[in-house]
């Protein structure tokens, strides 16, 4: 599911542009990670973190006039997509003060609600950088693994601490799109398998034309274009439920789409686009083991733990395996307890069986399945670390029973123990403003080199 995130409002109204402003210097927080070649043999890499362009203050290229306020565009500065790009500039970020983002050593903490001097910010989406102008590109297949530690002990129902990979351009589209003057330095170029249409700028142009303000999110809307690419959800989770989910696309790289033909969360026909919006997921609770993940359970979410994801083999035969490490103990992923769907990892065979038993749409296979996912992983993908709440379905698809009009006893409907009335963004933002997630100790390398 896409991260539909409520964003800052007020004087620092959230928006994004492709020109660069000069009101705030852009200084990327530093964050280290490790590349391993053998068990116990890892080299520290000095990375940086950048916040997505969609969160940034967008204003007239001269002066302070907002190009976007609340969930509406300035009709003088942004008459159409091209004029908006030439009239508006996005500025640097105060990471801690405005967005609640703090990097220290090998860790990154994202706070949910941050009340700044001029704004209240909700959630964030950040990317790992190789240097100040380039995203780090992780090649994850074949036979490679990605490991990180996470503390989500104070992420309740309705929140999603998501760590995942998308097939963005390494420079944020700077070379490909001449109108894009900001590039990866300012967090441009986002895409995912929902072909998101809430992005303010796509391919260096505004997304103003046919913009419709959200009916339940004072800071967001949907434009006439979307931005599609392959997505590997390593980690979507709160303290109650977690899922890992590959999303294939018929084309791997970032591609702009038009209107409802985009498909995904934002379109009238969810399955109309280039990409698979549902994915093939492994959620332990949904697969019948309700005692595996959560506070006081086998993987105890009241404490920090390690998440290991392995990409074994390639092509349609690729297997995506999961391990956890906590208290010095390696914990294999839970086994499926659903009749007719055996296994504890994601394979083509598992996905075939799961989709059949659950009766779900199988667009994952239609869009190339594991073979196309392996292509994207082999080509290199950008690491995204985010925290969000859900204005479309209250995160019930992750941590409750969903769809809500179906009996929770039907296989595949129960995904977590949260109440079906939970997760309403206004409620979560009020009751859980102090929520946060911390990602740390990222490691990447050949199989069985990053943990033990």
TrEMBL record:
<protein>
    <recommendedName>
        <fullName>Glucanase</fullName>
        <ecNumber>3.2.1.-</ecNumber>
    </recommendedName>
</protein>
<keyword id="KW-0326">Glycosidase</keyword>
<feature type="signal peptide">
    <location>
        <begin position="1"/>
        <end position="17"/>
    </location>
</feature>
<keyword id="KW-0624">Polysaccharide degradation</keyword>
<keyword id="KW-0378">Hydrolase</keyword>
<keyword id="KW-0136">Cellulose degradation</keyword>
<dbReference type="InterPro" id="IPR037019">
    <property type="entry name" value="Glyco_hydro_7_sf"/>
</dbReference>
<keyword id="KW-0119">Carbohydrate metabolism</keyword>
<dbReference type="Pfam" id="PF00840">
    <property type="entry name" value="Glyco_hydro_7"/>
</dbReference>
<dbReference type="GO" id="GO:0016162">
    <property type="term" value="F:cellulose 1,4-beta-cellobiosidase activity"/>
</dbReference>
<dbReference type="InterPro" id="IPR001722">
    <property type="entry name" value="Glyco_hydro_7"/>
</dbReference>
<dbReference type="InterPro" id="IPR013320">
    <property type="entry name" value="ConA-like_dom_sf"/>
</dbReference>
<dbReference type="GO" id="GO:0030245">
    <property type="term" value="P:cellulose catabolic process"/>
</dbReference>
<comment type="similarity">
    <text>Belongs to the glycosyl hydrolase 7 (cellulase C) family.</text>
</comment>
<keyword id="KW-0732">Signal</keyword>
């Amino acid at each position: 599911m896409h991260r539909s995130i409520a964003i800052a409002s007020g004087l620092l109204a959230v928006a994004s542009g492709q020109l660069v402003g000069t009101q705030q210097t852009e200084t990327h927080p530093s964050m280290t990670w490790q590349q391993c070649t053998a068990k116990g043999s890892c080299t520290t890499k000095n990375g940086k973190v950048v916040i997505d362009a969609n969160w940034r203050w967008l204003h007239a290229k001269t002066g302070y006039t907002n190009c976007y306020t609340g969930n509406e565009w300035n009709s003088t500065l942004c008459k159409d997509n091209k004029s908006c790009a030439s009239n508006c500039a996005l500025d640097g970020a105060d990471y801690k003060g405005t967005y609640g983002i703090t990097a220290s050593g090998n860790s990154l903490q994202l706070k949910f609600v941050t009340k700044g001097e001029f704004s209240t910010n909700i959630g964030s989406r950040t990317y790992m950088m190789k240097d100040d102008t380039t995203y780090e590109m992780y090649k994850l297949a074949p036979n490679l693994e990605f490991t990180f530690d996470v503390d989500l002990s104070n992420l309740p129902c309705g929140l999603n601490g998501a760590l995942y990979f998308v097939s963005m351009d390494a420079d944020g589209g700077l070379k490909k799109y001449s109108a894009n003057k900001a590039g990866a330095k300012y967090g441009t170029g986002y895409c995912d398998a929902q072909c998101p249409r809430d992005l303010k700028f796509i391919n260096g142009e505004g997304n103003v034309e046919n913009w419709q303000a959200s009916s339940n999110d004072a800071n967001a809307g949907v434009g006439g274009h979307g931005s599609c690419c392959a997505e590997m959800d390593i980690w979507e989770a709160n303290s109650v439920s977690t899922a890992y989910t590959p999303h294939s696309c018929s084309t791997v790289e970032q591609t702009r789409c038009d209107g409802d033909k985009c498909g995904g969360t934002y379109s009238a026909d969810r399955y109309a686009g280039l990409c698979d919006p549902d994915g093939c997921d492994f959620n332990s609770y949904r697969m019948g083991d309700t005692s595996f993940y959560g506070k006081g359970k086998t993987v105890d979410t009241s404490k920090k733990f390690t998440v290991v994801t392995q990409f074994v083999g390639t092509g349609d035969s690729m297997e995506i395996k999961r391990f956890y490490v906590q208290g010095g103990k390696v914990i294999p992923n839970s086994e499926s307890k659903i009749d007719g769907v055996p296994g504890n990892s994601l394979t083509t065979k598992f996905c075939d069986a799961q989709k059949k038993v659950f009766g779900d749409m199988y667009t994952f296979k239609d869009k190339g399945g594991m073979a196309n996912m392996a292509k994207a992983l082999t080509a290199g993908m950008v690491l995204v670390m985010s925290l969000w709440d859900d204005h479309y379905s209250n995160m019930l698809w992750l941590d409750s029973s969903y769809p809500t009009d179906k009996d929770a006893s039907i296989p595949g409907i129960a995904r977590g123990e949260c109440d079906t009335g939970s997760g309403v963004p206004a409620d979560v933002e009020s009751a859980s403003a102090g929520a946060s997630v911390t990602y740390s100790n990222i490691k990447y390398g050949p199989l069985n080199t990053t943990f033990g």
